[in-house]
Specification:
- By secondary structure, this protein is mainly α.
- The chain has one domain: Ferritin, CATH 1.20.1260.
- It has helices spanning 7-15, 17-41, 46-72, 85-90, 99-125, 129-155, 162-177, and strands at 179-180, 189-190.
- Strands 1-2 form a two-stranded parallel sheet.
C-alpha cells in the first residue's frame, strides 16, 4: 500500500461503527460475488479455480459472521451504497485478456491488504472487545487472500506484474488519502460527514 489509513478515518469509523460494520458485510458479500464471477469466466486454470473456490467459502463465512455480529448488536440491515474505492481502481483495468484478469487480481490484492490494515487499526481502538477480537481474527485470512491474489495474477502473466502492482499502488494510495464525502470501510479521508 502506498498510503497509511489516516487517524481522521479511524476516528470517523469508531464514531460510526454501525455503518462500518454494515459496509464490512457488503464487502464480504461483494468479494465472494467477484470470486464467483471469476470462477465462471476463467475455467482454464486449476490453481485459479481451487483458490477462488476457497476464497468464496471464506468470504461467505465472514459475511455470515458479520451478519451474526449485526444481529447480536441489534443492528438492522439497511441499504448502503458502494463507495468510490473499488470502482476507482477498476476504471484503470485493461480491457483485453489476460491483462484484464491480471488487473482484477491485483486490485483484489490491494482491497484485501487495505482491509487487513483497517481491521488492525480498528481492533486497537474500538471499545467492543468482541468486535475487536473478530477483526484480529480476520487479519490472517485477509493477509493470505492478498498473497493468493498476487500469486494468481503472476501465474497468468508471462511478464512480471511489478509494473502493474506499482501503478495500482499509486491509484489505491490516492483513493485512500484524498477527501471522500462518504464514509465506507475502504473510503478516503472523511469530509462533510
Amino acid at each position: 500500500m502506498g498510503a497509511r489509513t489516516s487517524q481522521a478515518w479511524v476516528n470517523a469509523a469508531v464514531n460510526n461503527l454501525p455503518l462500518i460494520i454494515q459496509d464490512h458485510a457488503n464487502c464480504e458479500k461483494k468479494a465472494a460475488g467477484t470470486a464467483m464471477n471469476l470462477i465462471f469466466r476463467y475455467e482454464f486454470s486449476y490453481d485459479l479455480q481451487r483458490k477462488l473456490a476457497q476464497l468464496i467459502r471464506e468470504e461467505m463465512l465472514h459475511y455470515e459472521q458479520v451478519l451474526g455480529i449485526m444481529n447480536e448488536r441489534g443492528q438492522a440491515w439497511k441499504y448502503l451504497s458502494a463507495g468510490r474505492y473499488a470502482k476507482g481502481m477498476l476504471k484503470h483495468k485493461r480491457t483485453y485478456e489476460p491483462a484484464a484478469m491480471v488487473d482484477v487480481l491485483i486490485i483484489g490484492a490491494f482491497i484485501e491488504a487495505r482491509s487487513c490494515e483497517r481491521f488492525a487499526a480498528l481492533s486497537e481502538v474500538i471499545n467492543d472487545e468482541r468486535l475487536a477480537k473478530y477483526y484480529r481474527y480476520l487479519l490472517k485470512s485477509e493477509s493470505r487472500h492478498f498473497e493468493d491474489y498476487l500469486a494468481l495474477a503472476q501465474s497468468l502473466s508471462d511478464d512480471s506484474i511489478d509494473e502493474r502492482v506499482a501503478f495500482f499502488k499509486e491509484v489505491e494510495a490516492e483513493l485512500i488519502s484524498t477527501p471522500d464525502t462518504e464514509l465506507r470501510f475502504h473510503s478516503g479521508d472523511p469530509i462533510a460527514l
